[in-house]
Design brief:
893 residues, 5-stranded mixed beta sheet, 3% helix
Amino acid sequence: MTVRHFVTGASVFAIAVSGQMASAQSTTVPATTPAQQTTAPAATDAASPQAAAPEVEGIGDIVVTAQRRDESLQSVPLAITAISGETLQSRGVVDISRLNEFVPGFSFGQTGSDVRPAMRGVRTANNGVTGDPTIGYFIDGIYQSRTSQAALGFADVATLEVQRGPQGTLYGRNTFGGNIVVTTNAPSHELDYGSTFTVGNYSKIRYEGFVNVPLTSNLAARIVLVSDLADGWVRNRNFSQADLFDENKKNVRGALKWDLGGFSATLRGDYVHQGGNGASAFGYKQIGSYIDPGSCQTLFNASYIGLNERAGNRDGVADCRVTTASPSAAIGTGVDLGVPIEYPGDWHTIGNNYKPFRDLSQASTSLTASYDFGPVSVKSITGYVRYRGRRTTDSDFSASSIAIDQARTQADTFTQELQLLSNTGNKLEYVLGGFFLNDNLVNGFINQQLPRTIVSTALAAPITAPANNGTYQFERVKVYSRAAYGQATYHLTDAWSVTGGVRYTHEKKTYLNATGYFYLPATAPNGANPLTLITIDDPLPSNGIFPAVPNNCGENGVTAATVLNSGGAQVLSTYCPLSFSEVTWKGGTEFKLTDRNLVYASVSTGFRSGGFNAGLAASQSAPTFGSEKVIAYEVGSKNRFFDNTLQLNLSAFYNRYRDLQESRQIIVGGTTLQTTFNAARARSYGLETEAIWQPTRALTFGANLSLLNAKYSSFKDVTLPFGGSILVNDATQTSATVVNGVTIAAAGQRRVFAPGYDCGPQSGTGGPGQPAVAFTCDLSGNNIPHSPKYSGTAYASYRFELGGDSALTPFAAVSFAGHHDEQAFNDWLARAPVWQKVDLSLTYDYSKQLSVEAFVDNVTNEKVQTLVSYGGTSLQASYNPPRMYGLRLRFQR
């Protein structure tokens, strides 16, 4: 069986979707025991010819680097899905948004330009600079510190690996839920060139091409060019130029590789720019709000009302008639709750009046060098990434002119890693390493209020009003991380091995904050330049406006200091440095029943470092939060049966999480404050399986399936996003209602809590001069967001030989997932329903060099909800693309 058989047309997906097929640049390798391998793969590039090995009959394999050396996927005792670059190109996958179709248990969410992947009960909730990702993202070994960097996509990929479960020993910080590792094609010493041209609906035109040139016998170069243009698939019927999810991307990458004896070095440089309108912010489609119909007050998880209640959206129309007296309305009066949602129920149509923009760019360079000394190899990975992101959105999500949100994100990340790796084929195999990271992060946010023009379908004419005050916030975070690690595998016999590893990580973070909530301009102290309402194109404030770090850090619990303006409002805050030191470890064993059947068991740990809470009250009472931690148990099996025509990989896991970073309410003086706390414990367990059956050379079936149960075991004192309780008048209540010494309702009133929740007062009485009452809820037992109880994909392809090198290959895939909650509160409106999605393609291979593919993704135009967020008292949702179709022409020398 040849490699070409697997990488032709759609059949490559049928193999590699479960991580089993190598691309043309990543030749198949046999599944062998470590003792049978005689080369030093750690000294080579996974995408280079040195990583190739002889072909085998039956299902091919792929080279992965999950253990920081090049190994056969089927020989690695980890839950990994590896996808070849040929598969990604054939399926039109250019970023991580569709990995749920390939990876069991992987969920994808997106808010604007920030991506929110999830696996095994771990999801990405905090995308700000004060937090860190929970799932690591690496390109050619270089860590990407912001989740929005994953939205920039990839091109000319050799392999993409998804390593499920914590990778705290070999990869370290912020690989709490797993890793996504992208390896691009390195230059090879053969002349090669190729291109892929895609056209489709929504005026889709994408070109991706590469040229690989051997410059000398030891030096080769590779250049990659990408241009991607498309109209937005979320139509704005009020402003045709403001469609969302359009594409305008340019990408260029160059690489040089030098091979000289045992020495190898690859230098890469990459620049990508992504423009257009983008995906707005948070969720782009308004769903509505929770309203108690009797009192017309906001009450979480109550009856749904299809109105846009974003701040300022008031058109004077009575949307709700009060039937039960409440402190805020008299019986029989009408309440203005907002404006009607534009095109309700139409998930890819909006009616906003503002044209947003997205301006994302990243310039990066890396140098990977290694030298093979024989018994050991030394490897160095150096990287620098400069990311800049600017984006705006229509803050009121309506046809009205009320406000615009503007956001900027900057990241300058330098990383250096050194590794000492033993050669394979010995009783003891090991990797020792050191890691260094400096990350400078900046976040700027402005809510710019506009002179108001309220437009509503319930109005005969627009209403005009002056603008309110805007909001400004600037944050700067610096992260210094150092780590040392080691992992070793000892082969007790040719079949039985044991593995152990440990990593020590030390981090220090500093934080500066400038805030202007609902007042602008804000005057800085000591004659420094004032902070004024700036536009998105203005430079962010210089460091000179900030006060010095407090000189009494640590004394009497001092961790932060604030500066107030003459009106008593906070202008600036500065925090003492925050340090974290963590030890993560792994232990495991594996046993080869045969050369093609492996069983393994492991226990491992991971952590995500803590951070800062911004704001005046936070800096006084709850300035920081600590690391969250996980211990993960896993057993699994990797198998080939029936002359290598059937592959079955299984993994079962149980994870325990503690000190989870979640939002919680605290009482500070006479007010309450929403902060991030180490407030929860949780657990998840499940089963993941990947299967391929190739009964003949032409016919392939495959499937992957995830069964998952992920819940909070303890999550108390949680404030609901809005409307956790309301007061209504009730003449039958002749005395005040007191709970645990706290008055929660006066005589003649009754407090109503959000239906379906166990809520009550946290502390305080709420009286004059006394602490405020915080009404909090117990969410213990709730489902962890983005954790469907079941999900998976089934697929099939058949290659009809037409003579010579010509063939016709139809392909079909069905992806599906059960309902799941998209917020920790498990409220009914923020719940994704069951979905099924069908993809079809037909590939005609004219020759080994030329093919054309017709494709239809999401054939049935299935509505797939990916995320629900809260904005004010409204809920906003995001969805996957509708039906996409087109033609893809591919040529390769």
